[in-house]
Design brief:
Layout lengths: L1 E6 L5 H11 L3 E5 L7 H8 L7 E5 L4 H10 L6 E5 L2 H9 L6 E6 L7 E4 L2 E3 L1 H12 L3 E4 L12
Parallel strand pairs: 1-4, 1-5, 2-3, 2-4, 5-8
Antiparallel strand pairs: 6-7
Helix pairs in contact: 4-5
Length: 154
């Protein structure tokens, strides 16, 4: 199973303790331009990932090529792809990374955002971005963890 998720925190307990076992993922791809160039933060985040799971820290631009290579290689393709924002997920989608379901897990509140679920607050730009992906056929899944009910309908 492949999970594509927006989460401001990227790698943290919900990912490691719930989504990894639920998806059976053997790969975690963190797509974030800033983190892709910060070796110290990568090492810190990697400490949370079980040794049996491969991790990659890539720029958003690299996602289509990385995922194509991952899916064409022999072995286990179950993966979690993490973006910190809808804008990043949209950039990857528009540049060729085709996904059908987008999990929106944690998008923190800040002034100007509207709280749409206990863990998701959206700006006007976020809503426009999500509606763009939804119009392209991407199902939006608002859940923090797998056993949560879907909390928002778009």
């Amino acid at each position: 199973m492949t999970l594509v998720r927006i989460d401001n925190r990227l790698i943290h307990g919900q990912i490691i303790e719930t989504w990894l076992p639920y998806t059976g993922a053997k790969n975690v791809v963190v797509a974030n331009d800033e983190l892709a160039h910060d070796i110290l933060q990568q090492e810190i985040m990697s400490l949370a990932i079980p040794q049996a799971v491969k991790s990659s820290f890539v720029t958003v631009e690299e996602v289509p090529a990385i995922m194509s290579r991952l899916f064409s290689a022999p072995g286990d393709h179950d993966s979690i792809i993490l973006f910190s924002s809808c804008a990043d997920a949209r950039r990857a989608f528009d540049s060729g990374f085709d996904f059908h379901v987008l999990n929106i897990g944690n998008v923190h509140y800040s002034p100007g955002k509207r709280q749409v679920s206990p863990s998701v607050a959206l700006s006007d730009e976020d809503e426009t971005c999500l509606r763009h992906l939804n119009r392209k056929g991407v199902e939006l899944d608002f859940r923090c963890v797998p056993n949560d009910p879907v909390q928002v309908r778009f």
